[in-house]
Design goal:
Layout (H helix, E strand, L loop, with lengths): L10 H9 L3 E6 L4 E4 L1 H4 L5 H4 L4 H7 L3 E8 L5 E12 L5 E10 L7 H11 L11 H18 L3 E9 L1 H8 L1 H18 L4 E7 L2 E6 L4 H16 L2 E4 L2 E4 L1 E9 L6 H17 L5 E3 L5 H22 L2 E7 L1 E2 L6 E9 L5 E2 L1 H10 L3 H16 L8 E5 L2 H4 L4 H12 L6 E6 H6 L1 H13 L3 E7 L5 H7 L4 E4 L1 H5 L5 H16 L3 E4 L5 H9 L4 E2 L8 E2 L6
Parallel strand pairs: 11-12, 15-17, 17-18, 18-19, 19-20, 20-21, 21-22
Antiparallel strand pairs: 1-2, 1-5, 3-4, 4-5, 6-8, 6-11, 7-8, 9-10, 13-15, 13-23, 14-22, 15-16
Length: 541
């Protein structure tokens, strides 16, 4: 069967055409049958029937037709078939195929109303698990919310997220993951009671609603779901996996907000369940500070995704004071432009970006935008420092992204220094070592930021082949007030010089600190006493 002509059908359209009883066949302008569903495939054994189809007439007339066909069978029997012939048009109005829907006269022909009904039904079904999908779940919950407000009934909505599902996908592939999702859906379905609704919301996330149910009763019933899944040992290609599920529950009553708010609340409680050990449930309680913080993080996560797409971020620059003979050093700082025009500091949105693993997206935006802007200004030898997250150095594709950006922009790699906090480096020291080695092989520099904040800092400095050491500002601020902090700063300077590293003092915010850190011979001084962050571009010192 040829496949060289028509506009590709969606997976949903193909699925519908496969499940209907009528035979559906599509012929292209070259006379080749480019699609046959299961019912039509059997008709290929009866060429005399197919030859009666007026393919050329449909292609040239551009009109639909109702046709009666006769099929001569064995022993002189004759079967009467009904066929609907429909021209298929391309987006530019050209006839690109002829579609035929055939049925035995003894069978009901699939008419347009039935076909539309099937389309509508399938649009509410998850094609993998055959459960209701997110759209169907939202419609049902909106009905339940209306009932709760009108009848003062009480219900419970639950948000379910599988534990350790990503391990299955990453280890044995997405086919295995799909099989696991189907098995989970079957187990959950077997546990359902009257009045319960189960839907697949996407990925490894499910939604459940228990109608006319108290919270205590819902917890008892859903605990059976958790217990059932905790005993599931999923096996694929001689590998066995333990799977669990975390749940977030929220009450649906006369005072409930909209569906998005309820789902967000349940999602927030689900994340709390994961943080508290997984394979458990948490109930959302309005006003709970922990839940409100998580809900705020979730709101930030949504805003950040939109902000990356719509370029709502801004880059500022803060230059350092450098001693004679060293390369000028300037840090690139990220801010978020709010709707009212104010710039939001990273401390407000970075925790949410880290929780929802959005940091690689943000880091990519900063790298791409910095490189673009560097192409527009003169290369005066200044080194521009870009902060990275632990999530980015764990991202196998990030290094390739940086390399590609360097190649496409054409800027000298020596103009770029990447900064990573000591705490982030310690999270996976071996991975950090490999990343630093590879990034320096590209020609870029590397700085260990907030140095001194981690345990056994000098051991980390020895392990990581960095170019710059940035002393944690909390020590610099206190060199006049604490002998211990002064000793830490002096020790870091001594060790860094022995190892041939350049030294940066952060948080130099007063004239006294400026004078003292200059006296200590530190290579770079950074802080408000030297320069306040300003818009791009700037004049280098």
């Amino acid at each position: 069967m040829s496949s060289h002509l028509i506009q590709p059908m969606t997976g949903l359209e193909k699925a519908i055409l496969e499940i209907i009883d009528s035979a559906v066949a599509i012929c292209d302008t070259e006379g080749d049958w480019v699609f046959l569903n299961h019912a039509a495939d059997a008709l290929m054994n009866y060429p005399s029937l197919l030859r009666q189809l007026p393919v050329e007439e449909i292609l040239t007339s551009r009109k639909r037709q109702e046709i009666e066909l006769r099929l001569e069978r064995e022993l002189g029997e004759t079967e009467v078939w009904n066929a609907r012939a429909i021209p298929v048009f391309s987006p530019d109005g050209q006839v690109q195929a002829a579609l035929f829907v055939l049925s035995n006269s003894a069978e009901k022909t699939l008419d347009e109303s039935n076909f539309q009904r099937l389309l509508e039904e399938q649009a509410l079904v998850d094609p993998l698990t055959r459960l209701p999908n997110r759209t169907a779940f939202e419609k049902k919950i909106n009905q339940i919310i209306a009932d709760a407000r009108l009848q003062h009934t009480q219900h419970v909505l639950a948000y379910l997220d599988l534990d350790q599902f990503k391990i299955v996908n990453d280890t044995v592939g997405h086919t295995a993951g799909d099989e696991l999702l189907c098995e989970v859906a079957q187990r959950f379905t077997a546990l359902m009671q009257p009045g319960e609704i189960l839907a697949r919301l996407g990925g490894d996330e499910f939604g459940v609603c228990l109608s006319n149910c108290s919270m205590d009763e819902a917890k008892q019933r859903l605990q059976r779901w958790i217990d059932a899944l905790s005993h599931l040992h999923f096996q694929y290609e001689n590998r066995r996996f333990r799977i669990g599920v975390s749940m977030g529950l929220v009450a649906v009553d006369a005072d409930s907000a909209s569906y998005p708010d309820l789902l967000s609340a349940a999602d927030t409680a689900c994340y709390a369940a994961k943080d508290k050990g997984r394979n458990r449930m948490e109930v959302y309680v309005a006003g709970n500070q922990e839940y409100e913080r998580r809900k705020l993080d979730l709101d930030w996560a949504v805003r950040l995704c939109d902000s990356v797409d719509e370029n709502h971020f801004e880059l500022l620059l803060q230059r350092s004071l450098h001693r004679q003979g060293v390369q000028p050093y300037c840090e690139v700082l990220l801010r978020l432009r709010l709707a009212d025009g104010r710039l939001e500091m990273p401390g407000a949105f970075i925790p949410a970006a880290e929780r929802y693993r959005l940091m690689p997206q943000l880091d990519r935006w900063v790298v791409r935008e910095t490189f673009r802007r560097l192409c527009e200004i003169e290369d005066d030898g200044t080194c521009y420092a870009i902060n990275l997250s632990a999530q980015s150095i764990s991202d196998e594709e990030f290094l390739h992204f940086v390399s590609l950006q360097l190649e496409e922009s054409g800027i000298r790699a020596e103009r770029i220094c990447f900064e990573l906090t000591e705490t982030a480096a310690v999270q996976n020291l071996l991975q950090a070592e490999q990343f630093v080695k590879k990034i320096r092989a590209l020609g870029c520099r590397f700085a260990l930021d907030d140095f001194g904040s981690g345990f056994a800092s000098f051991a980390h400095l020895k392990a990581l082949q960095v170019d710059f050491v940035k002393i944690d500002g909390s020590y610099v601020r206190e060199i006049f007030n604490s002998e211990i902090d002064r000793a830490v700063v002096e020790s870091i300077c001594k060790m860094a010089r022995l190892m041939g590293k350049s030294i940066v003092a952060e948080a130099v915010e007063t004239e006294l600190l400026l004078a003292e850190t200059e006296r200590m011979g530190i290579d770079y001084l950074q802080g408000y006493a030297i320069h306040r962050p300003e818009d791009w571009p700037m004049v280098s010192a």
